[in-house]
Amino acid sequence: MNYQEQLKDVRWQKLRLKIMARDKWKCRVCKRGDKTLAVHHLFYNPSGMAWDIDKKWLVTVCEGCHKFLEDTKYGKPVFTDKDYRRMYNRIKRKNEPGQRGEGR
Ligand SMILES: [Zn+2]
Predict the structure, then answer these.
(1) How far is the centre of ligand 1, averaged over its atoms, from the C-alpha of 104 (Å)?
(2) What is the pTM of this model?
(3) CA neighbor of 67 nearest in space, from 47, 34, 33, 94
(4) Which of 18, 23, 50, 88 could staple 60 via S-S, CB 3.0–4.6 A?
């Protein structure tokens, strides 16, 4: 079973709903609940299926934050509230205008 097939499996579908419920249907990074949500793996069990992993390695994130995590490989296996805050600040900075030398 390849990864794409695993993500369609009922076992993963059930687990991701549990994770989203645990996280109160909100992005754990930006805390928004009005965006399309995804469940991100902070860590993959190399020999297991997508659902064959401790729940602590799974976090609910919105599409935007998910992309950020994937792009930056920020999804490291030690995730504290401080890490979330740091990520949030990085995302905020990234989205703020004028951070790339605008107007010069
Ligand atoms: Zn988010």
Answers:
(1) 31
(2) 0.68
(3) 94
(4) 23
